Each structure stands twice: as structure tokens, then as C-alpha cells.
Amino acid sequence: MSAGITLDLSSGVPPYEQIRAQVSALVAAGTLIEGARLPTVRDLAADLGIAPGTVQRAYRELEARGVVRSRRRAGTVVAMGAGGGAAAAVQGRARDFVRGARAAGLDDDGILDLVRGALMTA
């Protein structure tokens, strides 16, 4: 049970960052809701075939950003308000943008390049 998280080990993006980004995206999209429990560090590491320390680093980064909270014996869960607020207000616009970009023939990498470019100039 990897919660829909996959890794591209040939990517230049470190595995912990891939996990962090995917969990953040799942929360922002509303796929993971407040209070949803993430897999244990050991379970996710075993599912993905990586060291537990890699998953632990991703979870620490997510906690530092307020996306999840971790407690001994309670596990790691999506934090209160992590997917709401401003993110919810623009979620529909983001989906519309992606649909429009795909209709224009862009692949996911091209769409991400556009977003990264916009972030750099905003």
C-alpha cells in the first residue's frame, strides 16, 4: 500500500523529494484529506524498495511545511487545514489549466515547465 506514490529512480530528483511532492499534490488535490493516515515509514520504504531513512526525510519535510503531523504510536496523518484555504480556491483553475494545456498537445513535462517558468517570473 504505497498510497499511490511511485518513484522514478532514474530521475535527477531525489527519492525523498519525489515522495514529498507527490504527497503534497495528493493533499492539494483532495485525494488525501485531513486526518488520513499515511503508510508507516517502514511500509512505504518496503513498497518502494528504498531505505526507511529516505521516507523519514520526506515525512519530516512534509511536517515542517505543515502538510502532515507525526506522533509516536499514532503515525503520520494529514494535518488539519493542509489542503484547504487558498489551495482549495485555485484548485479548479489549476485543473482547467492542465486540461487546456493537454488539449494544446503538451505533455506533463511541458506543463510543469510552464508552471515553473511562471513561478520564476511571478
UniProtKB/TrEMBL annotation:
InterPro entries linked to this entry: Tscrpt_reg_HTH_GntR, WH-like_DNA-bd_sf, WH_DNA-bd_sf
Keywords annotated in UniProt: DNA-binding, Transcription, Transcription regulation
Domain HTH gntR-type: 13-81
GO molecular function terms noted in the UniProt entry: DNA binding; DNA-binding transcription factor activity
Top-level taxonomic group: Bacteria
Gene3D superfamilies to which the protein is assigned, alphabetical: Winged helix-like DNA-binding domain superfamily/Winged helix DNA-binding domain (1.10.10.10)
Pfam families cross-referenced by the UniProt entry: GntR
Listed PANTHER family: HTH-TYPE TRANSCRIPTIONAL REPRESSOR YTRA
Name the UniProt record assigns to this protein: GntR family transcriptional regulator
Lineage: Bacteria, Bacillati, Actinomycetota, Actinomycetes, Micrococcales
